[in-house]
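Late entry, evening session. Most of the bench is empty. Finally got around to the prediction I had been postponing all week. Sequence below, unchanged from the version circulated by S.P.
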Amino acid sequence: MKTQEIRILIADDHTVVRDGLTAIIGMQTDMKIIGEAVNGAEACELFLKHSPDIMLLDLRMPKMDGVDVVRIVRETRPDARIIIVTTYAGDEGIFRSLKAGAKGCLLKDSPRHEIIEAVRNVFAGGHHIPGSIASKVSQHALKPHLTLREMEVIARMTRGESNKEIGGGLFVSEGTVKTHVKSILAKLNASSRTETAAIARRRGLIHE
């Protein structure tokens, strides 16, 4: 009896990553690449057009990031099985993607056997979260979450705006901005605005 073929869509803006995944998947007799997307908008379009069994989705892409792709696809296809592929285990986008409905995640330097295992596990209805990411997910669940307003303040802080400039841009008082900054420093365990910006970039809290 022939094994059911797993139809896979790859979405990544880096040619070398797409080629690498295609080579690994091409060696499997039960898997087939049915499309490749080079940005988030195209990922949504191709998913809705081809209805793949699995989408391997880069977290950071032009036009639309992975988190938004997961949300949009699952609004139309609640049963969509999406595996996030990312470079950094502590990226904030991983947690938001999982919350939005992604079924698993992989690091871009994952060995080929883990990539294949992840695809098969998720296709079978399971989840796949590597140990290095699972520990980060647990830590993230215990951390105080940033509010939408605090995220807006962080974005402006990293652009070098002063408290007065941030207040003017957000139509709040300078005192209110100072309160937000104090809260942000505490939540990120940062000692300065410079360190806050570095942490925000590392965790994928801002996109530049």
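Two things to note before I forget:
Residues 148-202 form a domain with the Arc Repressor Mutant, subunit A fold (CATH 1.10.10.10).
Residues 40 and 63 are 6 Å apart (CA to CA).
Will write this up properly tomorrow.
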